[in-house]
């Protein structure tokens, strides 16, 4: 349990550092560390498959793309747009509202029961696969369709319109 | 247009067929070729221990020759320096003193004879110009060095070893 | 209980130490082998001065690397500049943790497992570690604050991501055959060489999958013909342009360790790992101690062969152009991998 609190502390610390880091590349690196702490949490929950998928997909692929784009953008102090006071003010109000809502929501809810795993091997590949492909087959396939449509959309946006060739 | 030369050749570039586009056959044949080379004998000569044989007309470091009695043949006539296209040769002549007949063949000899090996182009014109057959480029490759001054070879390095009798 | 746990942990630590040592030595001698093999392919002799046949050359290289001046460029991001190579070598080293090096060795009444961790997602673990490997290159390249380094890093990242997809898809087809993600079980399924009238090794069940996997392995380890991140003609030195001394050494070293690990993975997944024809007979003859060790030797022979193959290809095929690399990855390998999955599915549904 103490390990959980330590890792949770690390996740929050790195998440805060993501926000407070001046350099966008450092932000992304902290985000990677945050995801890594999530991976450790999954391992602690004995959800090895989720842990490793989180590791591969988020840390290995998505964050590499993030880093890739941000490195190419070459964001630094010179190119940072000047923010007006009005935007800062609006940001503070929006953030405050969010904080109020979260605090209210936490107060309204009862303290959640600590999760007790009824089956210890719930997170392993075999059981996960059985659940996914028997009980939740339809949602699984629908979500895959959703991702597919997103992919088609991205390709469609990326391809240039072919000029009508009038020779 | 009329071709300017009869050697012109129109290159046909056919589109690659499937096997050529599939990379793999080409890669395999490449691997076969390099694989063959793997077992071939290496052509390397391990230099300082082994030396490649020089050809007959190789021109290397100069040597100032001695005659049959071990006397220096050079008479410091300066024809070699004159013929040298790179102006690499300098010399100072001196008169032979009585009692030095066993050292120098002619009455005049080169007291200082220097060749700047950095200037020398090893053309062999000095060899051809010499009337006394005193200089030949029959030595080894000139060794490397760290300082430019060490490339100016004096008589200590150029003159043949005396005959030991 | 306590004592058993300590014994277990101690045994694992020793195993980890041995594997680290072996992979470092293999990587060290891979640098030597690379130069020797290159020389043989080009009808030359190769390094032959340090020790007999130049056998001490890696030590000389290492000493040189350590003695050289360490330069951190002024405009570089100093912490990340160090993190880059450390991450590269770390991710290269931890990949070997899940590879089963041999059958359990029995010494007296004790029983030593020659695998550091038999986690049931072993294949995915390796995959994750490989995908992490690109961070070392990216961070190092960005932290150098040099355009060429950045370009090299960007190239490495896009290349690795592109080929990871094809690699993952080729592994999926393999997993459909094996039905498990644990490397230990995959190796056990390939026991011996011939069983039920067919080869047991996965190479003979998944030839196309193996081909895709090995191409992707070349790309993931940044080996020729896919070594565009360090393409000298275009990028000076690529992502390690600004690096010097042992930090450069770590980058170069991690490439060789990666090569070692990916060779081990290839022999484990497709070529039966420590299995060889007639191993049951040999095990029965030599007993529980030496029999498995012969298997370890066989695995290492396979690994060495694959490392040699990496080098063979390096000195045969010239580097790809970048657009060709991307075309190959996205338009050829990924469709082929998907076709392979479909074919495997059809085959296992209708013929078994």
CATH architectural type of the domain at 63-158 in chain B: 2-Layer Sandwich
What would you say the CATH architecture of the domain at 1-75 in chain A is? Up-down Bundle
Average per-residue pLDDT of chain A, rounded, comes to: 81
Judged by helices, strands and strand pairing, the structural class of chain A is mainly alpha
**Low confidence ranges of chain B:** none
**CATH topology (level 3) name of the domain at 63-158 in chain B:** Alpha-Beta Plaits
SSE string of chain B, helices as H and strands as E: HHEHEEHEEH
General form of chain B: elongated
Principal-axis shape of chain A: extended
CATH class of the domain at 63-158 in chain B reads: Alpha Beta
Largest sheet of chain B: 3 strands, antiparallel
- CATH-defined topology of the domain at 1-75 in chain A: Four Helix Bundle (Hemerythrin (Met), subunit A)
User: Strands of the biggest beta sheet of chain B: in what spatial order?
Assistant: 2-3-5
Account of the protein in words:
The complex is a heterotrimer of chains A (167), B (165) and C (352). Helix content of chain A is 74%, strand content 0%. Chain A has helices spanning 2-20, 24-44, 48-73, 85-108, 125-135, 137-158. Chain A has 167 residues and is mainly alpha-helical. Among the domains of chain A are: 1-75, Four Helix Bundle (Hemerythrin (Met), subunit A) (Up-down Bundle), CATH 1.20.120; 118-157. Chain A is extended and about 55 Å long. Chain B is of the alpha+beta class. Chain B has a domain at 63-158: Alpha-Beta Plaits (2-Layer Sandwich). A three-stranded antiparallel β-sheet of chain B has the order 2-3-5. Chain B has a two-stranded antiparallel sheet with strand order 1-4. The radius of gyration of chain B is 28 Å and the shape is elongated. The N and C termini of chain B lie far apart (80 Å). The mean pLDDT of chain B is 85. Chain C has 352 residues and is mainly α. Chain C has one domain (72-350). Chain C contains twelve helices and four strands. Chain C has helices at 2-41, 57-67, 78-94, 122-143, 147-178, 183-189, 202-205, 207-220, 232-235, 245-270, 279-314, 322-350, and strands at residues 105-107, 110-112, 194-195, 198-199. In chain C, β3 and β4 form a beta hairpin. In chain C, α2 (57-67) crosses α10 and α3 runs parallel beside α10. The N and C termini of chain C lie far apart (46 Å). Chains in contact: A-C, B-C. Chains A and C meet through α2 and α3 of A and α4 and α5 of C.
């Amino acid at each position: 349990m103490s390990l959980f609190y330590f890792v949770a502390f690390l996740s929050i610390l790195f998440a805060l550092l993501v926000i407070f880091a001046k350099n966008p590349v450092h932000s992304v690196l902290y985000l990677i560390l945050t995801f890594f702490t999530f991976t450790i949490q999954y391992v602690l929950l004995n959800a090895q498959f989720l842990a490793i998928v989180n590791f591969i997909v988020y840390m290995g692929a998505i964050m590499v793309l993030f880093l890739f784009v941000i490195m190419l953008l070459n964001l630094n102090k010179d190119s940072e747009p000047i923010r007006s006071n009005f935007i800062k003010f609006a940001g503070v109000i929006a953030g405050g509202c969010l904080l109020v809502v979260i605090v209210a929501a936490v107060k309204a809810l009862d303290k959640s029961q600590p999760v007790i795993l009824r089956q210890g091997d719930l997170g392993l590949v075999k059981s996960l696969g059985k659940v996914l492909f028997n009980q939740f087959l339809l949602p699984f396939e629908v979500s895959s369709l959703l991702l597919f449509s997103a992919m088609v959309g991205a390709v469609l946006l990326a391809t240039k319109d072919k000029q009508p060739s009038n020779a | 247009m009329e071709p300017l030369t009869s050697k012109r050749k129109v290159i046909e570039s056919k589109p690659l067929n499937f096997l050529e586009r599939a990379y793999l056959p080409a890669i395999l044949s490449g691997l076969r070729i390099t694989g063959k080379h793997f077992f071939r004998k290496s052509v390397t000569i391990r230099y300082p221990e082994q030396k490649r044989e020089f050809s007959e007309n190789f021109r290397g470091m100069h040597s100032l020759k001695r005659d049959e009695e071990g006397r220096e043949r050079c008479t410091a006539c300066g024809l070699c320096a004159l013929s040298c296209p790179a102006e690499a040769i300098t010399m100072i002549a001196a008169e032979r003193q009585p009692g030095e007949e066993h050292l120098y063949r002619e009455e005049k000899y080169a007291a200082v004879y220097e060749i700047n090996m950095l200037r020398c182009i090893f053309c062999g014109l000095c060899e051809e110009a010499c009337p006394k057959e005193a200089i030949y480029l029959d030595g080894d490759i000139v060794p490397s060095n760290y300082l430019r001054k060490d490339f100016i070879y004096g008589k200590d390095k150029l003159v043949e070893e005396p005959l030991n009798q | 209980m306590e004592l058993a746990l300590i014994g277990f942990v101690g045994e694992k630590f020793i195993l980890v130490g041995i594997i680290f040592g072996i992979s470092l030595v293999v990587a060290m001698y891979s640098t030597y082998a690379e130069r020797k093999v290159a020389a043989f392919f080009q009808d030359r002799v190769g390094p032959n001065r340090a020790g007999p046949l130049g056998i001490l050359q890696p030590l000389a290289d290492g000493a040189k690397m350590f003695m050289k001046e360490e330069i951190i460029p002024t405009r570089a991001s100093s912490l990340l500049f160090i993190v880059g190579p450390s991450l590269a070598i770390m991710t290269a080293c931890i990949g070997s943790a899940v590879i089963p090096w041999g059958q359990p060795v029995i010494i007296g009444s004790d029983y030593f497992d020659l695998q550091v961790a038999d986690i049931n997602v072993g294949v995915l673990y390796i995959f994750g570690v490989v995908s992490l490997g690109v961070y070392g290159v990216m961070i190092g390249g960005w932290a150098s604050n040099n355009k060429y380094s950045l370009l090299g890093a960007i190239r490495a990242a896009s290349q690795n991501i592109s080929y990871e997809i094809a690699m993952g898809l080729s592994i999926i087809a393999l997993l459909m055959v094996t039905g498990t993600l644990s490397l230990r079980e995959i190796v056990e399924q390939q026991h011996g060489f011939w069983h039920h009238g067919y080869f047991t090794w996965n190479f003979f069940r998944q030839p196309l999958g193996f081909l895709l996997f090995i191409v992707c392995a070349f790309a993931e380890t940044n080996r020729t013909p896919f070594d565009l991140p360090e393409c000298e003609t275009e990028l000076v030195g690529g992502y390690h342009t600004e690096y010097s001394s042992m930090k450069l050494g770590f980058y170069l070293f991690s490439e060789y360790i990666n090569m070692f690990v990916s060779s081990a993975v290839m022999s484990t997944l497709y070529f039966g790992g420590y299995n060889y024809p007639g191993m049951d007979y040999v095990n029965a003859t030599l007993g529980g101690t030496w029999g498995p060790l012969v298997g370890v030797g066989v695995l290492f022979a396979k690994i060495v062969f694959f490392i040699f193959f990496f080098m063979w290809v390096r000195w045969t095929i010239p580097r790809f152009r970048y657009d060709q690399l991307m075309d190959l990855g996205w338009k050829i390998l990924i469709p082929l991998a998907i076709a392979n999955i479909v074919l495997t599915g059809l085959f296992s549904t209708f013929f078994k």
